[in-house]
Amino acid sequence: MVPSLVSRFGVRESLARRFLIVCMILGFVALIAAGVGAAWLTSRNQEHTHWVNHTYEVEIAIAEVGTLIERGETARRGYLLTGEQPYLDTYADVAAKLRPAFDRLQQLTIDNPVQQAAIAQLKAHAAELKAQRDMTLALAKAGRIEQAIASFSGETVLRRMTTLRAMGAAMRDREKQLLVRRDAEQQANIRLFYITLGVAGLFLLLAALASIATIVRYTRDLGASRDMLRDFADSLEEQVEERTADLSRANDEIQRFAYIVSHDLRSPLVNVMGFTAELDSAAAAITDLIDRAERDAPGLVTEDARLAAREDLPEAIGFIRTSTQKMDRLINAILKLSREGRRVLAPGKVGMTELVATIGRSLQHMIDDKGAALSIEGDLPDLVTDRLAIEQIFSNLIENAVKYLQPGRPGRIVVRGQRVGARVTYEIEDNGRGIGPADHQRVFDLFRRAGNQDQPGEGIGLAHVRALAYRLGGVIDVRSELGKGATFRLNLPAILQDVEGKQ
């Protein structure tokens, strides 16, 4: 039920996550598009403002040129009529300003060939007008007023001024037309920006609505799944408690059964061993009888009787005794495991460096016989655990390392340890025979042994070690290659706390 539930909600969660990512990407794209559009429109607005100001400047420059021409004509007429010097000064001032005014107008319209051509014509007409004005003013200053007035009256000033005004008006009209066209372009840009902004806003709205709908649905599904998981967890906790109780009862039954069976097996085994001893005594008496008969009456003893008394019967009794001794050792091992399973653990602080050193001293005779050396790397992390159990674990592991060293190679056994968080890992490394990959797990099974069986034992040591490690809340494994030694790794809690209750 749990895998299907997790799988179902896992797929939904993955799809929801991907959909939300897509919505976020669309939203960011819409925001970026709106930002780019705003930046572009701002740039266009600045450009439009620049050209509007430029148009107004051109119009002002055209008006300024026209005003100066008009003022020059007015000053000339005033001087011809009155002869007063201020009119002549005004004319001179206007004449001095007219050229810079034309230059500025020409600079402002340098990008407009049509306006440049119109300015050239305007300057030519203005030059002709200025030449006529200078001549009449020269006559007037020379005292020839009547001749100057006659010359003025004979001029086509009105036609020339009308032409100049018309040219100025035409130039202003062209600037206004440019302004109208630029205004139209600006309005088109604004409309395009609003369209872009509307599309981006629509995308943002759709992405927001889709995201909200997905989140609401996902939250609703998540709430439903949380309720289902809570109900399942409650029921699972009850099931675990029931199964744990059943397992505890079954474990107790197995231990009692093993204890009872081992006791029941021991009773007939003791009888077999006793009768085997009697058979051995009887076999000795029969053998003695056969010896006397051969000596006193050789013809009475057959070859079969002789073989049975001297070879077959002692060999059979030897086989029976060997088998009963092996069965006795197996029953003792089962009893030991059964008693260890029923023993109550007593956690206490254990100095591991001193404990391993003590084990090494107790096995020193074996280590010396093998020509080996036991060393401890650094200080081993201490434990709060059951001293008897941890001592049995390390005794078995170190003794096995000594027993299965490689002949002809100086033995080396190293014990090291480190603490990581709340757990401690110990390693017992040797350079002995090693264990094949296929036997890495089998060596921990009861009555299973690996490799050449040239050492005494019943195959219960590592099984006992694994059972003790499990009772202490730990695990044990092995890394090894044939001919390259073995490393047993023991991982235990640094502090033993109600491990059996949790198990």
From TrEMBL:
It catalyses: ATP + protein L-histidine = ADP + protein N-phospho-L-histidine. Pfam families: CHASE3, HATPase_c, HisKA. The keyword Phosphoprotein applies. CDD domains: HisKA (cd00082), HK9-like_sensor (cd19410). This is histidine kinase. Keywords: Kinase, Membrane, Phosphoprotein, Transferase, Transmembrane, Transmembrane helix. Its EC number is 2.7.13.3. It is an enzyme of class 2 (transferase). The chain crosses the membrane at residues 20-41, 192-216. Residues 260-496 form the Histidine kinase domain. The keyword rRNA-binding does not apply. PROSITE patterns: HIS_KIN (PS50109).
